[in-house]
Design brief:
Blueprint lengths: L5 H28 L2 H12 L7 H8 L3 H13 L3 E6 L2 E6 L3 H28 L1
Antiparallel strand pairs: 1-2
Helix pairs in contact: 1-4, 1-5, 2-4
Length: 127
């Protein structure tokens, strides 16, 4: 097994630490979005983003019970992926526009892409 030059080894460690920190920061989002039911709710909210949706509408779209929808919405709310707007006694749910979350998610994806691209290029040179 060949050893990496010291500067490449340091770069690998730096990249690994960066990815680890980014995953740690975004863990609540991965947990929240790791469930197929929450993915369905999130998708329904994205498709109806103009005004948001109420629990009965989400129930109709997803064919879930009202208690199940409410439970999953609470998880999405805690993760910062969904917001709620109260209008009288009605709650309207929509996808959050918190760009900090989405920028962090994009940065993680970009960093993973860069690491994978570099690894792929190095494999190509070894053939």
């Amino acid at each position: 097994m060949t050893e990496l030059p010291e500067h490449e080894d340091a770069e690998c460690v730096k990249n690994r630490r960066l990815l680890s920190a980014q995953f740690e920061t975004l863990r609540p989002i991965f947990v929240a979005m790791g469930d197929e039911t929450r993915q369905q709710i999130f998708t329904a909210l994205l498709e109806n983003e103009t005004w948001g949706m109420r629990v009965p509408q989400i129930t109709e779209c997803t064919h879930l019970s009202r208690p199940a929808v409410s439970h999953h919405l609470q998880i999405l709310l805690r993760a910062g992926l969904v917001r709620v707007r109260k209008q009288g006694t009605m709650n309207w749910y929509s996808v959050t526009a918190d760009m900090e979350i989405w920028t962090a998610f994009k940065n993680l994806a970009d960093n993973i892409h860069a690491v994978v691209t570099k690894a792929n290029n190095e494999q190509e040179h070894c053939r």
